[in-house]
Amino acid sequence: MVKRRKFLKTTALAGLAASQPIWAVPHSIGYKKKRNMITVSDSSSNFEREPLKRPFGFKGGYMTEIWQTAALLKSDKYHGLGICTQNVLWSDAKVFAAHSESGGNALMFAMSEYAVQLVKGRKFTTPIELLDDILEEVYEYGKKITGNKDLRKTFALNALVGVDNAAWQLYAYENKLKDFDEMIPTEYRPALSYKHDKVASIPLMAYTIPIDELEQAVNEGYFFMKIKIGQPGTQEEMLEKDKERLSAIHKVIGDRRTEHTKNGKIPYYFDANGRYEEKDTLLRLLDHAKKIGAFEQIAIIEEPFPEDKDIEVGDMGVRIAADESAHTDEDAVKRIEMGYQAIALKAIAKTMSMTMKIASEAHKRSVPCFCADLTVNPILIDWNKNVAARLAPFPGIGDMGLLETNGHQNYKNWGEMLEHHPYNGKSWTKTEDGLFKLNDSFYEHSGGMLEQSAHYEKMFANKLKS
């Protein structure tokens, strides 16, 4: 059962309308506790490489490993340790294509290290303030070292995830905030005001995932399928491959039933990662979907067009979602004005700070949001889950949030990575019948957001001794 968080009136709120949420209460009556000014006294960064089970294909390219980076921020009393999963191909496919796979990862890590050094000695009140303070400088540095004057801002945001996460931990410790709800700044609470007792777990079916594995996922209870489209080749070759893939998938799972959707059918969530260069090409794919009877099951088509094309999408008859083109809150507003009817939030790719800002703008415009993955590690799944669990229910789905998570499908050493989670084994870390079932323990511990991982702390053993 979905719960909207209760904000009870007290005598201090006399004169306010009974329905007015406490996040609207002015600072003068004392709700908004003054936050401490935090000084970053020291900082550091590190990384490790995680191999994949098989090449992971999207945007017409393939990855074979994913770098897990970490950022340490220290104050006089505490330390925050933030983790980041890098994804150069997702963040900027041009950078990925211009360098070796390791070279592209090294460039993104260099930006993380630059940011870590940049914040040393800085003061901040909230992590959002810190991100606003350094984002443009890190972005300009990224343009310089990649040699790409048109570097996508998402590349800089991905590089800043670990720094931002470390700042959120430090912010909580310095202000003695006990959970994620207390950490959310007042102005962003309306967009994150639910407490779901379940979140849909969405697997990813990349180009190379065999159809029988997709069918097995449905047999295991997964009911919301994310399917990569936009396969390698020319536009015509891509379209034919995507039509063939859609036909094969629909033949196997098109008639399967689920209790979690209004029409009882399994929703399809297509992600094109900007591979469709023209609107007409995508319309031809949709015509094929109609022909085979799959059209009504298309719940979302994410990021179909290159963002520089500025194609209006409000007249396509399906819900088009923005992902990497919604780099910032301002970009998200622009996409909504172009007819985009959903926003894929990625606290684990664009920073928690920017995600709160994007979610807030979408909420003001009644545009639904859901949480997409970046093939992140188990710890970051629960950072993302904190957001998914607090979003309004997605249209056409039951009372729950949506969370894509595909690390278990792609990492070679997933079992070992699970052991790095401070709450490994808790029921809310596991998918059961296609759901993450959340309880008081999840909310009490904020999914482990404020706990340190011994594995990642070992990366900074010398720094933490000093």
Explain how this protein is built:
The chain is an alpha/beta fold and about 475 residues long. It folds into three domains: about 1-30, no CATH class; about 40-180, Enolase-like, N-terminal domain (Enolase-like, domain 1, 2-Layer Sandwich); about 190-450, Enolase-like C-terminal domain (TIM Barrel), CATH 3.20.20.120. About 40% of the residues lie in helices and about 20% in strands. It has helices at about 90, 95-100, 100-120, 125-145, 155-175, 180-185, 210-220, 235-255, 280-290, 330-335, 350-365, 380-390, 405-410, 415-420, 440-445, 455, 460-465, and strands at about 5, 40, 40-60, 60-75, 80-85, 125, 195, 200, 205, 225-230, 270, 300, 320, 340-345, 370, 400-405, 430, 435. The strands form five sheets. The protein has a seven-stranded parallel β-sheet. The chain has a four-stranded mixed β-sheet with strand order 16-8-18-17, covered by helices on one side. Helix 8 links the parallel strand 10 and strand 11. Helix 3 (about 100-120) crosses helix 4 (about 125-145), helix 3 crosses helix 5 (about 155-175) and helix 4 (about 125-145) packs antiparallel against helix 5 (about 155-175). The radius of gyration is 22 Å and the shape is globular. The relative contact order is 0.13. Residues about 5-30 have low confidence and may be disordered.
CATH class of the largest domain: Alpha Beta
- Beta content comes to 15-25%
CATH third-level topology of the largest domain: TIM Barrel
CATH superfamily of the largest domain: Enolase-like C-terminal domain
